[in-house]
Amino acid sequence: MNDETPTTKTTPRETLTGDRLCMQCLHPLVGRTIEREATTGLLYVRCGECATASALFEYPTAAPWMHRMKTVAASTFAVFAIFAVLALGGVTGGFTSGSAQVATTASAASIVRAFQAAGGSTKSADGQYEQGPFGSID
C-alpha cells in the first residue's frame, strides 16, 4: 500500500524580531520561534494565542500601517498647530481692536466734554446729516 501521510516536521530557526501581527487574532508575534515547513520550505511563525501559522513576508505586515499612523499623527499635530496660531492671532487681534475702540471712544468723549465746557455746541451744522439724505423732500 501507498501510505503517504504528510509529515509536518519543522525545524526551529531563530526568534522573530520584527513587528508582525497574527492575521487571525492580531496578537503580536515578536519573540516567537521562526520555523521552516519541511515539504515546502516556507518560513512561518505560529501565534502563541490562537496557534495560527503566519507566513513570513519580505517586510513586516504591521510596518506600513505604523508608517501611515506616523504620517497621520504628524499631519494632525501640524493642523492643530496651525489652528492654535490662527486662534492666538484672532484673540490678539480682538484684544487690539477692542482696546483701540475703548481708547478712541474715551478720547472722543473727552474732546466733546472739553468743547462743551468752552461754550461750544455739539449740534451738527450739517442739516443733511441731521435729517438724512432725503429729509428736505416731502
How would you explain this protein's 3D organization?
With about 140 residues, this protein is of the alpha+beta class. Among the domains are: about 10-50, no CATH class; about 70-120. Helices cover about 45% and strands about 15% of the residues. The chain has two helices and four strands. It has a four-stranded antiparallel β-sheet, with no helix packed on it. A hairpin with a 6-residue loop joins strand 3 and strand 4 (about 55). The model has no long low-confidence stretch (mean pLDDT about 80).
Give a concise summary:
Among the domains are: 10-51, no CATH class; 69-118. Helices cover 43% and strands 13% of the residues. The chain has 2 helices and 4 strands; from the N terminus they run ββββαα.
Strands, helices and their partners?
Blueprint: E1 10-15, E2 33-37, E3 43-46, E4 53-55, H1 63-117, H2 127-131
Primary descriptors:
138 residues, alpha+beta, 4-stranded antiparallel beta sheet, 2 helices, 4 strands, 43% helix, rod-shaped
Which band does the percent of strand residues land in? 5-15%
**What's the total number of strands?**
4
Instruction: Kindly state the percentage of residues in helix.
Output: 40-55%
Rg (C-alpha, Å): 40 Å
Task: State the order of secondary-structure elements, H for helix, E for strand.
Answer: EEEEHH
Based on helices, strands and strand pairing, what is the structural class?
A: alpha+beta
